[in-house]
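Hmm, what's this shape?
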Amino acid sequence: MKASRLILYATLLIAAGSFTILTLFVFFRLVSMTDGSPDMLAAGDKVGLVRVDGILGDSEDALEQLEAYRKSGSVKAIVLRVDTPGGGVGASRELYEEVLRIREDGKPVVTSMGPLAASGGYYVACASDSILAGPSTITGSIGVVAIFPNYTEALDRLGLKFHVLATGPFKASGASVKEFTEEERAYLQSLLDDLFQQFVDVIAETRGLPRDSVLAVADGRAFTGRQAVDLGLVDRLGTLEDAATAAAILADLPVPPRVVEKKERRFSLRDLIRESRLFLRAAPAPFPRIEYRLY
């Protein structure tokens, strides 16, 4: 009899322990999937907030957040808080494409411009359903810039000389140890011109503006938020809260909506490497780069 009770107690203890372990596993799995945010674990429909800030050189974090909110069943709309001078052509385009993908999946996206949302930042904002800016927001700066450092004079003074070998006449275009040829200059300018035309096309299509009207302001000038509204580059003036309300209305959510945001991660070695890389990109260029950026 005692042996039977011991077996029963042991079985119940094992079952209770297994249930506890399973419960903890499910809980921490949910936490990892929702970035540990209590709001994400709570029931109900929400508006997800994604911040696009700093130099756009590495869009990995923002892309991950956008993708997570796109796949989330409880996040019904997204607000982009854009506060950036722009940055890499590739990073800007990646974010733009992901925002379009979210809208294609049926979730509205509203951009709230911070103090600075220029060039590549404006490029990303164009993918959203609506753009709100502050009256003093600095935006616009539509154009492409390329920086090609040239060290030939410094090398001459040091008595150093590099021999550049390449498999084609344009393979070493922009190399910092030799002067441009006229053919190389024309070739590189053609790259910038094509990227610029793509930028203009995006604005004309997404903002519903005549192409000539876009070209008239696409000379690199920056504008205040109030000027941008008058030019049709921005829909209206408003705060981050106004943008969240607008997103909720588009998604048929109650106002004010519940807004969720990914919590900040602990700073890791990976973050240190990425921040160092972004710092180098923000500094005077040690290598050629082409950007949508306000300088």
